[in-house]
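Task: sequence design from structure.
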């Protein structure tokens, strides 16, 4: 018999302090799942939350899929009637991306029938990052609330308070409202955050906001068909199914590349001032030294955005600093290489206002930077038969046919890197396959 995560009880508690409501789910977890706590906790800064089992089930779904178990929910806990159907569709996409053959069955619970309120507007999952800022610019007329989650990429309350203040200041200008909430799911599981967990972890707890919104917008990470063809926690193929009877979900932004999003934001100084891209556990808003900060800063500098309009350390916001850091950078995620290629192509195609001397210098530095990481990444996986097969240069045409893209295109590079990363996780976790 297949093992299951059991959601035994749901408790709604009132709190004193910033977060006013706490929703606690008591769990009984098989050893193979490996959760560090038997309690799933969500906290909210409002009183009128519509707590239900959907929030917990979707938060735990990636964990259940990754460890090949089912989910059982207590009979007293309500859930959407079409939840099993949505879970099946999500698992079908994950099976294709990760080359698994798994199902997560949902049992128990009390079905509730309810409709969405057309008069309510939408909420945007908002981190202050490039993706969510670009979505806000396009969808501002239908957005009433910005939804910010503590415990996703911020775990320090001091940094959370700084981000909160910037969002509050922005809302005073935009005449919008913010709903703050927290989750502990990332702290209690080691299931890969980027590859499978993060959309469910962010959207699940937000499904209790049905008294305020009738739709949640989640911003796309990837561009066009790449967003549908690699293993990533947020996808247009899966996000729309992380919904309930009361709240729908829209995945938005696949028509824009990362560089196009930054260019769009650069026209709005108020949005630039809140832009937070850094994922380092630093006391600073943006550290100015990690790969993601460097990549964003170099784009803004090439766009001639002055230092007083951006939230990066003043001593780091210079082309000399960035080029110096790039030569010493020891870590770059494979998928990020394509974003650097996109910048390099725009430099070569004279889409930035640069002198010939500046353009040649940046072309050389970016080419050297990409070449070093590309070589290291290739060598790192040459010992695996799978990579030997696909890294063989004589089989480039087979790869082109497989991806339906020319090998010298940016989309090919991006998809190729992400495809290898998905397969790497498959091989790494092969011992845990069904």
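Answer:
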């Amino acid at each position: 018999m297949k093992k299951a995560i059991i959601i035994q009880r749901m408790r709604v508690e009132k709190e004193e302090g910033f977060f006013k409501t706490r929703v606690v789910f008591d769990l009984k977890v098989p050893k193979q799942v490996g959760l560090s706590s038997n309690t799933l906790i969500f906290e909210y800064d409002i009183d009128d939350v519509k707590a239900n089992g959907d929030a917990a089930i979707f938060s735990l779904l990636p964990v259940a899929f990754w460890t090949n178990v089912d989910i059982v929910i207590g009979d007293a806990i309500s859930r959407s009637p079409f939840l099993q159907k949505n879970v099946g569709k999500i698992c079908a996409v994950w099976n294709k991306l990760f080359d698994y053959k798994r199902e997560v069955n949902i049992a128990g619970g009390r079905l509730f029938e309810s409709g969405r309120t057309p008069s309510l507007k939408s909420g945007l999952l908002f981190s202050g990052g490039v993706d969510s800022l670009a979505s806000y610019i396009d969808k501002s007329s239908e957005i009433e609330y910005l939804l910010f989650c503590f415990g996703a990429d911020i775990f320090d309350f001091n940094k959370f308070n700084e981000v909160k203040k910037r969002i509050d200041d922005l809302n005073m200008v935009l005449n919008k409202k913010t709903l703050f909430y927290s989750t502990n799911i990332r702290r209690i599981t080691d299931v890969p955050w980027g590859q499978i967990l993060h959309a469910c972890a962010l959207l699940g707890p937000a499904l209790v906001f049905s008294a305020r919104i009738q739709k949640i917008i989640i911003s796309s990470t990837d561009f066009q068909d790449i967003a549908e063809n690699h293993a990533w926690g947020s996808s247009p193929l899966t996000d729309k199914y992380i919904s309930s009877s009361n709240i729908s979900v829209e995945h938005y932004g696949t028509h824009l590349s990362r560089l196009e999003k930054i260019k769009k934001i650069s026209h709005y100084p108020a949005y630039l001032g809140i832009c937070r891209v850094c994922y380092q556990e630093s006391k600073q808003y943006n550290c100015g030294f990690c790969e993601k900060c460097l990549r964003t800063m170099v784009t803004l500098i090439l766009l001639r955005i002055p230092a007083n309009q951006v939230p990066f350390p003043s001593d780091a916001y210079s082309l000399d600093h960035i080029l110096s850091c790039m030569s010493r950078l020891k870590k770059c995620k494979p998928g990020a290489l394509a974003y650097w290629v996109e910048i390099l192509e725009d430099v070569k195609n004279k889409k930035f206002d640069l002198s010939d001397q500046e353009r040649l210098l940046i072309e050389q530095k970016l080419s050297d930077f990409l070449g070093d990481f590309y070589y290291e990444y290739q060598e790192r996986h040459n010992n695996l038969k799978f990579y030997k097969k696909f890294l063989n240069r004589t089989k480039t045409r087979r790869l082109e046919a497989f991806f339906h893209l020319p090998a010298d295109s940016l989309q090919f590079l991006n998809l190729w890197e992400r495809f290898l990363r998905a397969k790497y996780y498959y091989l790494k976790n092969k011992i845990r396959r069904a």
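The two ends are 13 Å apart (CA to CA).
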